[in-house]
Each structure stands twice: as structure tokens, then as C-alpha cells.
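look at this fold:
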Amino acid sequence: MNLDLAVAIRRFLEYLEVERNCSKLTIRNYEHYLTVLLEYFESQGKGTVMVSDIDLDSVRSFRLYLSRQPGVDGEMKIVTQGYYVIALRSFLKWLIKNDYKVMQPEKIEVPKNKDHSLKFLNGEQIERLMNQPLLSTKVGLRDRAILELFFSTGLRVSELVRLNRDQVNLKTREFGVIGKGGKARVVFVSKRAAVFMERYLKIRSDKHRPLFIRYGGKHDLISEEEKMRLSPRSIERMVKHYVRLAKLPVDATPHTLRHSMATDLLRAGADLRSVQELLGHKNIATTQIYTHVTDARLREVHEKFHSGNKKDV
């Protein structure tokens, strides 16, 4: 059984939306990666492209094409190329599931990123970052509340921007979020984060539903209700701004604060399984990127408590 590649991609995106209940952002990303694939195949001048045309040689040629594409700082980064490969593998798995004869996705290896270092901020760097927003302004107070909430909860930026005012209970200092893959979890607000959020909400005289709203800028969103909601990109720019002001040695992003939250908990003695639940990781293997913290803590435990370390040799 064969199928036009363009038709197959459209059906796959519909499957992600209807059956997998993926977020609009995820669907948009997959659409982009697979559209680039389709356009590349069509540019080869072989007529109508079918799913059976995806083989090792064509994939190798496509990956060579990607590696030569311009990126932010020269050529496209390895991690970006990996996103295209991951999308293609997921697409092939769906085709196989629907009885189309295509190549096995396992034959396509995801490129390994040379930089495996995990970026996070230590306690002193967190304090420097938190102290950058000017609290005498409504923008500064909002930004401090955002930074505190990131570090307190480990929210993804996509999760934070979707928050509404009535969703967050500052009395109990906890609320529920729906994360990747529709996975629900409870996150907890630190006492300090709750203080700044209360201060921020106290100066709000508007009735807008979004928890964090924009001040100024173009209101170009279609929905009247959503026109004041901050976008992920605007929050990313805001974090970058304060990172530069703080002169931090780490090129921190909102996700860096998520890593920093997990690192902070593990260093204080939290177990990996609990951190997995707090971050909303589906698989414990994802949380194991923080073994640099647990390994160091285990060494401290061994040095302190093992009887062999208490005797002179």
C-alpha cells in the first residue's frame, strides 16, 4: 500500500491533533519539519512524491541538505537537525502502524549533540537574576513574579503562558497544569514566589483572565480575550534581558530556570522520582539528565557515613 507524501503528512498532522491531542505548538513544529522534507523531495524533480520514496539514500541526502542550511550562527545546529529526524521517525512509525510499507524508523539515527552539558544557575546566580527587575514599576513586579514562579515550579514556558488568574491558588500555594502529551501534574509555589505574585496581582486593576499580561506592544492576536496574554517569545526575551543585566556566565533561558529548580531540589536531598513527578517527565530516563547532581550528593553521603572512610589506613 502506497500514499502520496503530501496527503500522508496532512493525515498524520490530523492524527496528532485528534487522537494524540498534541498542542498546537507541537503540531505546528511537526508541520514545519515535514513540509521542509516534502519540499526537498519535490525539488528533486521526480514527479509526485510517495511515502515509499523515503529510503536510506533519500534520507541521507536530505540530512546532508539540512546540514548545509544556514542557522543563527552559521550552519544549522545539530540539535535543530535532530528535530527534523525525530519528526520523520514519528511520521514513519505512524505510517507503519497504518500498514504502509515504508522503511523502519530505527534505521534513521538521531544526530548526537556535541554539547551534553546541562545549563543551570547556582544559588548566588539565581539571586542576582531575581534582583534585576525594578519593583517600583508594574512591568518589573510582573517580571519578578514570572522569574520566581519559573524557579519555584519548574514550569515550561508554554505552560506558564497558558495560566489564568483563577487557576492559581496562592493560599494553598499549589495548582494543576497540563503538560506535554496531556500529562497532568500538580506544581507548588514557594513562599517567596507567592509573595511577589500577590504583590503583582494586587496592582492589577483589569479583569483580564491571563495571569501574566503584556504592557504595551501590538495586540495582534485574534481573540479579544487573549489579546493581553504574554507570548512565549516575549517571556524568553524578558529572561534574556535580565540575564544580560545580571551579567551571568550562563546564557540562561526559561528552561534553564526549570533545570535550576530541579538541581536545587536534588542538592537539598530530594529523590529523583519525586523530581520526575514535579517536572512532569513521562519517563524517569528524562530526569536522569540530573545525575551530575545525584552522583555528587551520593559521594558526599558515602564520604560521611561509610565506616571505611572513618579509619586511618
